[in-house]
Design goal:
Layout lengths: L6 H13 L7 H8 L4 H13 L3 E4 L2 E4 L1 H4 L1 E3 L17 E3 L1 H5 L6 E5 L15 E5 L9 E6 L2 E10 L2 E5 L8 E3 L4 E10 L4
Antiparallel strand pairs: 1-2, 3-4, 5-6, 6-11, 7-8, 7-11, 8-9, 9-10
Helix pairs in contact: 2-3
């Protein structure tokens, strides 16, 4: 590894290290990961991270703080004419906190088929399902019908439940038998590369 990384680049390396679920084991290990040839430089770097609030020390374990797991958040991007974003973003975003309100009841599920394409949810997307939310009309839900699960809009009128696709090639499902709403979709993740 190169030893001339900037402070910001080393933080990015450390962010990836912790994001992959690894834990700090030794100064020698961190020397290799961060590209230092001397363990004293790792100690100095970690002291700076402690002072900057990027890491905290619990016993002998270095733990990442929220400052290490947030990403820069720019206010907007035009989908029309180009613009130059600010070099110092005014805010940061913790993606976990933004997408997940109730971690203990949240699941990620990969989408198959295209019944919700007109809602912007296509095959291969990952929907974020919150089981703790009570569905309201217009919510996108995952429902279980006779052991099969489906992703549809939720509509309930006069105790009649209808599951509505967002693709005119599919027809709405009028629920006449047992149906379990597994949760409400609160977000979608799509990866392009």
């Amino acid at each position: 590894m190169r030893t001339d990384k900037t402070y910001g680049a080393k933080i990015t390396t450390l962010r990836e290290f912790f994001r992959n679920g690894w834990v700090f084991e030794s100064l020698t290990q961190m020397s290799v990961i961060l590209g230092y040839t001397n363990k004293a430089w790792v100690k100095y770097f970690f002291l700076k991270l402690l002072n900057d609030g990027i890491l905290s020390l619990q016993g002998t374990q270095y733990i990442p703080t929220e400052k290490l797991i947030v990403y820069p958040l720019y206010e907007s991007v035009r989908a029309g004419l180009p613009f130059t974003p600010e070099t110092n973003p005014p805010n940061h975003i913790n993606v976990d906190k933004y997408l997940i309100e109730h971690p203990a009841s949240t699941f990620f599920i990969r989408v198959k088929w295209d019944s919700m394409k007109d809602a912007g949810i296509v095959e291969g997307d990952i929907v974020i399902l919150d089981r703790s939310l009570t569905p309201k009309n217009g919510d996108i839900v995952i429902a279980s019908l006779d052991g099969d699960v489906t992703l549809k809009y939720f509509e309930k009128k006069w105790e009649k439940l209808k599951l509505i696709p967002a693709n005119e090639s599919y027809i709405p499902i009028i629920v006449n038998g047992p149906c379990e709403i597994l949760g409400v979709v609160c977000g979608t993740v799509r990866k392009y590369h």
